[in-house]
Amino acid sequence: MTDQHRQTLPEGGKARRVYLLLRDDILSGVHGAGSVLAGEQKLAEMHGVSRVTIRRALDALEEDRLIERRAGSGTRVREAVQPQTMAADMATLIPQIVKMGQHSARLLSFSYGAAPDHVAEAMELGEGNRVQRAVRVRLAGETPFSHLTTYVPEDIATNYSEADLANVPLYQLLERSGVRVSSASQRVGATLAGPDVAEA
């Protein structure tokens, strides 16, 4: 594990929760390089904890070299952190995707908009290019076993409807749209489930 991906868990359950949430936002690109985080008091109000708890979480993020704190200029994200990836063997990945399509899924949201920075970079999208964002819960029988957020370039996504995505596996819709998957990468990590994910 490189320095930029190391993890320093602070003491206290609440501080760990805030730390993991902020760390996930930084690593996923929600808080981009150079962006300024909210002040301690605002963060405390947002997370329903004390400023002491926020300081512990920020101390751990600073130890991880994800942020830097300067008097008078606030807390900034230090650098763009590239998510860890692992190469996927297409001979095994594609059958797994197809098999997953045999399970049912529940569509939670469906919309079009600007791609987050990390998505635009991964897809090599130009400025202003929009994507379809869909959030789904995949079910094995009646039991939820995964929470998925997918981004598809608008020029491809317009080939199918919201109703299609609610009833047909995305992999099949992409094939139907003429997309041939030639390579893939996986990003594996762990984070706390937010209320929206836990309730889904």
TrEMBL record:
Q: Which CDD domains match?
A: WHTH_GntR
Q: Does the keyword Signal apply?
A: no
**Xref: PROSITE patterns:** HTH_GNTR
Biological process according to GO: negative regulation of DNA-templated transcription
A GO molecular function for this record? DNA binding
Q: Which InterPro entries match?
A: Bact_HTH_transcr_reg, Chorismate_lyase_/UTRA_dom_sf, Tscrpt_reg_HTH_GntR, UTRA, WH-like_DNA-bd_sf, WH_DNA-bd_sf
Taxonomy-wise, where does this protein's organism fall, top ranks first?
Bacteria, Pseudomonadati, Pseudomonadota, Alphaproteobacteria, Rhodobacterales
Which UniProt key words apply to this protein? DNA-binding, Transcription, Transcription regulation
This chain belongs to the protein called GntR family transcriptional regulator
Gene3D superfamilies assigned: Chorismate lyase-like, Winged helix-like DNA-binding domain superfamily/Winged helix DNA-binding domain
